[in-house]
């Protein structure tokens, strides 16, 4: 398994190189630049600034220079945030996203898995249709509607929770962002688990286990749970990265200093290094998450072996 993991990581290097190359080319092809503004700078001052950041060099030289920095773990300076590097911005914003996304992912699993199993065991009854209808509603309602409604109810009318801000990560400031971020993922997990469990329970080996007189709880947890988790693991690979990297909508509504806001601001202001740094970080996270999902397959299904 170790050799397989190393081989997968090495094979991901060309993928990352393509991501970096395409992102670099598209950003520099977009009109405008990081130092364009409504107030036109004198040509000499603009030339000096671009020279300080090596933006006056040909694009191939800029690209090779940036690759060399990335290989050293340096994503370069930010063009918009004075005296701040991209590494500093990621170090500031990533803990916020990891905290909120981690709690949201855990909450989604703790709620979605039992609901999915419960609905599967009561297939085609009111106890199946009800939770699945609620799950469909959770998928359909976008977060830019759920989050303001939560603020209106719990912050404005009831005064139970603060309306926004990070607040140093205090529990009262985390409740609403975590719930708003977890709602659609909980619905997806519930529906996926329900469908997978229904299919697993109709398998011949499950019917054999039931025919032998095994208790339903034993059949579910000892025989059906692991196979039913396989489709969910495929979903959780990229989904975990998406939920932990945060949502720009959630960050904007609750005024959270996550990397999602830095990414959007960087794209609007042509802050090339910020956009490239966060893109590379996201790409690495996707590759690692998919690798972990593949390794989990072997734990759930003993027939899978990675040589």
How would you describe what is shown here?
- With 307 residues, this protein is mostly helical.
- It starts with a helix and ends in a 7-residue tail after the last helix.
- The chain has a domain at 88-261: MetI-like fold.
- Helices cover 75% and strands 0% of the residues.
- The longest helix is centred in the middle third of the chain and has 36 residues, at 86-121.
- Sheet/helix structural class: mainly alpha
CATH superfamily of the domain at 88-261: MetI-like
Q: Which percent band covers the strand fraction?
A: under 5%
Number of contiguous helices: 12
Secondary structure: helix percent: over 70%
CATH class of the domain at 88-261, named Mainly Alpha
Globally, the shape reads flat
Descriptors for this entry?
MetI-like fold, 12 helices, 307 residues, mainly alpha
Gist of the model:
It contains twelve helices and no strands.
Describe the SSE topology:
Blueprint: H1 2-29, H2 43-52, H3 59-71, H4 86-121, H5 126-140, H6 143-157, H7 171-201, H8 204-211, H9 216-244, H10 248-253, H11 259-268, H12 272-300
């Amino acid at each position: 398994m170790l050799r397989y993991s190393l081989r997968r990581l090495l094979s991901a290097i060309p993928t990352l190189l393509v991501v970096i190359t395409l992102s670099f080319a598209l950003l520099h092809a977009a009109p405008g630049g990081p130092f364009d503004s409504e107030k036109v700078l004198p040509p000499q001052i603009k030339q000096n600034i671009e020279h300080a950041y090596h933006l006056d060099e040909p694009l191939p030289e800029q690209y090779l220079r940036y690759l060399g920095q990335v290989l050293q773990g340096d994503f370069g300076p930010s063009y918009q945030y004075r005296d701040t590097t991209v590494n500093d911005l990621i170090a500031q914003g990533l803990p916020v996203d990891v905290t909120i996304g981690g709690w949201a992912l855990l909450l989604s699993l703790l709620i979605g898995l039992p609901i999915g199993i419960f609905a599967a065991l009561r297939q085609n009854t009111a106890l199946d249709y009800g939770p699945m209808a609620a799950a469909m509603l959770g998928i359909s309602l976008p977060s830019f509607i759920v989050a303001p409604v939560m603020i209106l109810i719990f912050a404005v009318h009831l005064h139970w929770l603060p309306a926004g801000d990070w607040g140093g990560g205090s529990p009262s400031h985390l409740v609403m962002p975590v719930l708003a971020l977890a709602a659609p993922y909980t619905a997806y997990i519930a529906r996926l688990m329900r469908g997978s469990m229904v299919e697993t329970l109709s398998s011949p080996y499950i019917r054999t286990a039931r025919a032998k007189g095994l208790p339903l709880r034993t059949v579910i947890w000892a025989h059906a749970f692991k196979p039913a988790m396989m489709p969910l693991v495929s979903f959780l690979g990229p989904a975990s990265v998406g939920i932990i990297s945060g949502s720009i909508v959630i960050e904007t509504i609750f005024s959270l200093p996550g990397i999602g806001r830095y990414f959007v601001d960087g794209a609007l202001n042509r802050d090339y290094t910020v956009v490239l740094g966060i893109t590379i970080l996201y790409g690495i996270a996707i590759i690692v998450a998919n690798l972990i999902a593949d390794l989990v397959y072997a734990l759930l299904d003993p027939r899978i072996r990675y040589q």
